[in-house]
């Protein structure tokens, strides 16, 4: 048994931790771009080496067994120690290198990640980027647990935390079908949301909370026709179902240009999203992470210069609403 445990590879432990965090072999396969049978074989091999089942198979995915629950914290600690050792070794090099894991919202990944990857490849070829897309709640959880190094998400009002830096602000737009109430308007007042069929992220959600607060203040009723966390699904349904959603304009630029959607800025009050950069407090940031935070800020500023959003080069926070 001792020899079997000694033969366990870090790659197997990483896979075990990934499946445990996601609660699904299928999701892990998608996340890792690996065939599910290959993941199942690796997990089975690890279970054999550990002398017992690590997961219960359920209708919704997998759940840790008692043995899995005991092993997971120690596996994560070992993986963290191994990664830190790698980073300490690389820190002695003159050029930053190593993996940097970024958690990001889907609506931010399209304008940011391609530019960021290109800049990283040109300036820091030794840095390997790993990108995880998720909801605000997921990204927050990943950051707190140390699963990611850097988070890019939206905040509203003065909600940024100590380990977060506001980077830019972006307006919110009412998005709907080409023929509808928007009718090529330039702005739409908040009160027009009264009883309008809306497609919004599922609660709990910061945008939902803010919308409810503003609706109560305005004395109007919000009708959530469909709850959908997927940005592509929100856009698809807005184009075809007669419903509307609320998104930053960069998230629907291609569809608006193609005439599949209309997007009109929400005003009176408008809703301003702050793009915030957060860093994990679970471990010291590596040199590669520090360089990536600077590169992200530079990339956000470059995008702002093209008018997609407004850079907050000196402002520390933005207001959630404006009259």
Can you walk through the features of this model?
The chain is α/β, with parallel strands linked by helices and 323 residues long. It has 3 domains: 2-79, Arc Repressor Mutant, subunit A; 90-168 and 274-322, Periplasmic binding protein-like II (D-Maltodextrin-Binding Protein, domain 2, 3-Layer(aba) Sandwich); 169-272, D-Maltodextrin-Binding Protein, domain 2. It has 11 helices and 14 strands. It has helices spanning 2-6, 10-22, 25-32, 36-50, 66-91, 106-123, 136-145, 206-218, 231-240, 253-257, 287-304; strands at residues 55-58, 61-64, 98-104, 127-133, 150-155, 164-176, 187-189, 197-200, 223-227, 244-248, 262-267, 270-279, 310-311, 321-322. The strands form 2 sheets. Strands 3, 4, 5, 6, 7, 8, 9, 10, 11, 12, 13 and 14 form a 12-stranded mixed sheet that branches. α2 crosses α4, α2 (10-22) crosses α5 (66-91) and α6 (106-123) crosses α11 (287-304). Residues 1-6 and 314-323 have low confidence and may be disordered.
């Amino acid at each position: 048994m001792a020899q079997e445990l000694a033969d366990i590879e870090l790659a197997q432990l990483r896979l075990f931790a990934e499946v445990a965090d996601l609660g699904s072999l299928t999701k892990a396969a998608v996340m890792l771009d690996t065939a599910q049978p290959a993941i199942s074989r690796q997990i089975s091999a690890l279970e054999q080496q550990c002398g017992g089942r690590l997961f219960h198979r359920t209708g919704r995915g997998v759940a840790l067994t008692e043995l899995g629950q005991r092993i997971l914290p120690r596996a994560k600690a070992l993986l963290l120690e191994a990664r830190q050792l790698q980073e300490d070794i690389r820190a002695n090099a003159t050029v930053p290198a190593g993996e940097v894991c970024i958690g990001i919202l889907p609506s931010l990944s399209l304008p940011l990640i391609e530019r960021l990857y290109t800049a990283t490849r040109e300036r820091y070829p030794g840095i390997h980027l790993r990108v995880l897309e998720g909801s605000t709640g997921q990204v927050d959880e990943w950051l707190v647990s140390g699963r990611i190094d850097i988070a890019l998400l939206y905040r509203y009002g003065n909600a940024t935390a100590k380990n977060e830096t506001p980077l830019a602000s972006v307006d919110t737009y009412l998005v709907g079908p080409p023929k509808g109430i928007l009718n090529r308007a330039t702005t739409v007042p908040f009160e027009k949301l009264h009883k309008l069929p809306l497609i919004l992220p599922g609660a709990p959600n910061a945008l939902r909370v803010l919308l409810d607060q503003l609706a109560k203040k305005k004395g109007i009723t919000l009708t959530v026709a469909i709850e959908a966390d997927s940005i592509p699904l929100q856009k698809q349904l807005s184009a075809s179902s007669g419903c509307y959603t609320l998104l930053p304009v960069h998230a629907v630029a291609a569809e608006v240009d193609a005439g599949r959607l209309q997007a009109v800025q929400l005003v009176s009050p408008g809703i301003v999203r702050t793009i915030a950069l957060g860093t994990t407090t679970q471990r010291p940031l590596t040199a590669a992470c520090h360089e990536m935070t600077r590169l992200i800020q530079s990339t956000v500023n470059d995008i702002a210069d093209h008018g997609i959003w407004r850079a907050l080069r000196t402002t520390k926070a933005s207001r959630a609403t404006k009259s």
